[in-house]
Design a protein that fits this description.
By secondary structure, the protein is an alpha/beta fold. The protein contains 8 helices and 12 strands.
């Protein structure tokens, strides 16, 4: 539940389009059409919607992906207008994105990747020993073999291991806001439960953490227990409510919201 009345993150009437024009029409394709959402410290928000509704575009836009351009509206983080901030600045400020399809980083171990990322986040050189101890603790909680910290990031990882690795990064980097872009995609029920428990464990240690979980399915929300649920259809939030809204979607589907 929310720990403060202060606003952590606000999406204010956000419009976004593809950065590159459509080759057939020569015009940008508008995808988000006025999305508004407010997250307070400690809140978990779930954003649900059918394929093609704009969910992943929203996640990418929130992290300043060059694939999309904000055409109207604002993004406010801890009171600052971050609409024009680039990805690196947003990440250093404490905004974290767990990708739907985590990328492999050849030649870079999980340990070295996190050491570099955490040093940039904190502005100090992190101790390898201190980081290793922290990683071992979180790997145990996430049911990951500690040998994974020496492997190259996501190289040869299964789908579940990649998602656990995303949650591991989230735990170690200590963001203020975590955006989970379909973290449940491709997970079996055991892996899903482990990942969701990991997210809840992180928030238990850092109760001011705000979470925006983007998903297709009710099953993730059974474990995350969101405070607020929103339905995104055709680039617009068409309904907002509590956990009961997700259960309604499970029963009625998205057609009733179109």
């Amino acid at each position: 539940m929310a720990m403060s009345d202060d606003v952590l993150f606000e999406i204010d009437d956000l419009h976004a389009a593809t950065a590159e024009p459509d080759p057939e029409t020569g015009e940008q394709v508008s995808i988000l059409h006025g999305v508004s959402l407010t997250i307070r410290p400690g809140e978990i928000h779930a954003l649900m919607g059918p394929n093609g509704s704009g969910k992943s575009t929203l996640a990418s836009t929130l992290l300043a992906s060059p694939e999309y351009e904000v055409t109207d509206g604002r993004l406010l983080y801890q009171g600052d207008d971050i609409t024009d901030w680039d990805t690196e600045v947003r990440a250093k400020a404490g905004i974290f994105l767990a990708f739907q399809y985590p990328q492999e980083i050849a030649g870079v171990s999980v340990l070295n990747f996190l050491r570099q990322a955490l040093s940039a986040r904190k502005g100090i050189e992190m101790s390898v020993l201190e980081l290793r101890l922290s990683l071992m603790d979180w790997m145990e909680r996430l049911e990951m073999d500690s040998a994974f910290m020496e492997r190259y990031v996501n190289e040869g990882f299964s789908g579940g291991e990649k998602k656990r690795n995303e949650v591991l990064q989230m735990a170690v980097l200590e963001p203020e806001l975590a955006i989970l872009d379909e973290t449940d995609s491709g997970l079996d029920i055991d892996a899903l439960q482990t990942v969701a428990k990991g997210v809840k464990a992180i928030q238990a240690e850092r109760p001011q953490l705000g979470v925006l979980a983007i998903t297709h399915y009710q099953r993730l929300l059974d474990y995350l227990e969101p405070d607020h649920v929103h339905v995104l259809v055709d680039g617009r939030i068409v309904a907002s409510g509590g956990p009961e809204l997700a259960k309604q979607l499970e029963t009625d589907g998205y057609e009733s919201f179109k």
